[in-house]
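Two entries, shown back to back:
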Amino acid sequence: MSTAQKTHTRHASVPAASRSKLLPIVLIAGVVLALIVFTAIILSASSRSQYVPQVTGSARAEVSRTLIDHGDVRMEETVQSVFRIRNIGDRPLRILDEPRVELIEGCCPPRALVSHYTIQPGEESVITLTFTMFDMMGGPHEFRVHVFTNDPTQPEIPLTILSNWIE
């Protein structure tokens, strides 16, 4: 066999040998990839909770709590009040406007911030009020937060925040 033939034969056999070595690796990689994809599909399907509405035919607001009492708070501390409103109906729940904060006692009512004005069935919105009192603002404070919704059973949801500011 001439040198040219040996070189040609050697080069021709390299791809075949490489292919036979690569085939198990490619097959294993394919099986592993298929298992990963299959597992991801199963996990995503099982993690999706099927929402079952407690009320049908309308939106319905469910509030985590209607009263927050911060008790005694030192002046110049920042206080945060968080209310969660969940839609347990089967139609979108709407918070119709920025909640109105009524001053019952004390001074300086904070602004109510709403995370979502439209709440899809099974989802929730967070209403947050953050405030601080300073010198000459001490004593008891009471704020009433009026949340207006399209829930036919409770178009207005009153929320109360209490605190007593001390030196």
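entry 2 starts here
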Amino acid sequence: MKNISLLLSALFLITGIAGCSNGNDSDASSDDGRIDVAVTTTFLDDMVEIIDGNADAFDTELIIPAGEDPHVYQPKASNLKTIVDSDLLFYQGLNFEGRMADVLTDGIPVAEDFDSSVLETQEEGETDPHFWFNIELYKQAMTIVENELSAAAPEHEEAFQSNLDNYFDELDALDAYVRERISEIPAESRILITPHDAFGYLSTAYDLDVHAPQGFSTESEVSNNMISRTADIIMEQNIKAIFVETTTNPDQMKRLEEIVSSRGGTVNVVGSSKDALYSDSLGEAGEPGDTYIGMYRHNIDTIVENLK
């Protein structure tokens, strides 16, 4: 955002890098003529890469690294410079990047204009930001991104639309795969327990019952009462497995396992480095979840193999 707000200018002064954001600076655009795009999350990074394809019209900079928790990520000075130097800035919105809100005001929030009727909410009115587990909502977000990229590089609009259409075919195949795999789990065993409430859209789309001791954000409090209530569900429903997430502390699930054990029950904690669920971030390069489709297939395969 070449004309970023006064707030960012103040932040640069505070961090000692004032002056780096000059729109005429040689670092402010790619030397090869590509358009500079900043994205907050790995999901958005994957979207831009898919849409851009072989056109290679954009130089994309990821702000929150793979494996980091966007709910609690604190922007660094280098991130602020990336934001200022960008021609386009995409962020997810719905308070997903909660601690970055003040520095994203000039960006494009891909989820803010979704129809409120399709968004998951809690009784307190808080909106669930984890829309990417609803494949149809993910398509809507990608369409928003494609429209903005086409406006920035209209000479590639036809290629971008073709890339998007082809990818939507892959997403339709993914949806069919998910439905087929979940059908392998007996109806009474389709109960997913994770550290925080990130899988509500998955629940609605594929008829899973989801529970978590923590709310939509990993910043929310985890009370002893919520831990105990979750343990009650495990015991009452005779749940075989509970799942760790790649961006959360595994101790929470281990604590649940200990409580269940103390009550005479057993439950398996699924969460080694290779089978933890991806929730708030895609995986690092080379991991099975380093793309959106790879992430989704990994999660579903892991859930099905441990609950069926």
